[in-house]
Amino acid sequence: MHIKDTPGTTLSLKRYALLLVALGVLTITALTGCDRREYKEMDLTERIDDAELGPAAPNGDNDALRFGFDLRDSPDEDARQYLPLLKYLEQATGLPFELRFTTAGTTAVEMLGTGEFDFAAVGAGSYLEARARFGITPLVRGLNAEGRPEYQSVIIVAPDSPIRKIEDLRGKSFAFSCVHSAQGHLIPRIILAEHGMSLDDLVLLKYTGSYQNCANAVAAGRFDAGGVQDILGRRLAAEGFVRIIHTSEFYPSSSIAANRDVPEEVIQKVKQALLNFQPTGAHAEGLYHWDRTEMAGGFSEARDEEYAELREWSIRFGLLDAPARGDAQ
């Protein structure tokens, strides 16, 4: 198995493990000159050593299936979680896989759609865009810890914030994760709309790039509130870094999807392996913080029609074009 971070650059698992150890953990502090409040430092990642990742020599296979992902925490933390899954897929399917990152100026949507990725783990928002633009194929949806193929968004504020309800956000600043994100953008906007608010009611907004960055910005007091993944938000609230003021309804969870040119035989083999994946049972050994993912309980089959409500909201917000009459999604 290989890991690629830029075109033409391949890292063995051993070299990548050494790189991870060299990276410092991410912390946050408030650095503004006029704000003298003290903030907690928040470490959202944990270092793992070479032995924990497990070295693997490059196999030199140019036909390896390229697996990408939407950024959720940080590139190294996300990679730690997906690498054991790819090892499982190699064993279950007999097919070679490599992990790839998005390149500068691109997104997982574009790289999956144009064939730079063969498969990718994408949130519902990214799936909707990639389906509309490129006709990608959904394989599976993640099951949460309760075995439901759904997830939620939570709206968070700093623990000492005076904000208590969604209506209090009028005239405040708000941090989103990524414009393509369902939990970090689309669903928080649905929450605002359901409370009679739009982006125009916010004094400032920013797309921070990931759930981790969004949580950091809110916990550090740089933004009044933000929308993040339910699992991360609840963990940080339990640790006292943030406070949750609202939890959304359930919506279809993240999926693993394929580029439309991947052969059907390969799609079916990978899909069946994912459906057979038992992260809390037979395949738990070697997984890294899998309980913090949107796939903690494994996978169920994904169908495009399950995303109809989110698709309608995306069109309403101008995130997707309305399909021409008679067009299939």
Task: State the gist of this model.
The protein has helices at 13-22, 50-53, 75-93, 108-113, 124-134, 182-194, 211-219, 230-238, 264-276, 308-316; strands at residues 2-6, 9-11, 65-69, 97-100, 119-122, 137-143, 150-151, 153-157, 173-176, 204-207, 225-229, 243-247, 251-252, 255-258, 298-301. By secondary structure, the chain is of the alpha/beta class.
CATH topology of the largest domain: D-Maltodextrin-Binding Protein, domain 2
Question: What is the residue-mean pLDDT, rounded to a whole number?
Answer: 83
Count up the domains: 2
Task: List the total number of helices.
Answer: 10
Which band does the percent of strand residues land in? 15-25%
Instruction: Output the radius of gyration.
Output: 20 Å
Strand order of the largest sheet: 2-1-4-3-5-14-6-15
Classified in CATH, the superfamily of the largest domain is Periplasmic binding protein-like II
Helix content percent band: 25-40%
Unreliable spans are 2-60
